[in-house]
Write a structure and sequence with these properties.
Elements: E1 7-15, E2 20-24, H1 36-48, E3 50-51, E4 57-63, E5 72-77, E6 82-83, E7 95-101, H2 102-111, H3 117-134
Antiparallel strand pairs: 1-2, 1-7, 3-6, 4-5
Length: about 140
Amino acid sequence: MITKENQILLVKQYRYAGQDFFLEIPAGKPEESETYEEAILREVREETGYITKTEPILLGEFFINPATQNNKVISYLIESAYQAFEQELDPTEFIEFKLVNVDDIYSKIKSGEINQLFTVSAFYLAMPHLSKILNLQFN
């Protein structure tokens, strides 16, 4: 998710299986009859209070590990996001959101500060879009 100010919106939350805090893109799964697009917009609003007036851009749909799992990650880029609400977290959620400059994301990945697979893959899938929006060159 990229804000109107051209920053990347990430969330930091504790992941019990990994026994640590992870810096990652907002994510979730559809509730009831939601589409994937509706679900990601709802999750982003709940976790961060950010919304957008643009349609999410599908970056890709991928199996995580088809040898042992049947679930998929469906990644979207959300553009022109802005904070319009407070967080609406479940009682068991403790999520801190962070705004990161686009040019700092790659170094956070290289250093291991961002080490969650679908966040890393979403960033690389979004690079062509980010390059156009921000007129950036990625090395």
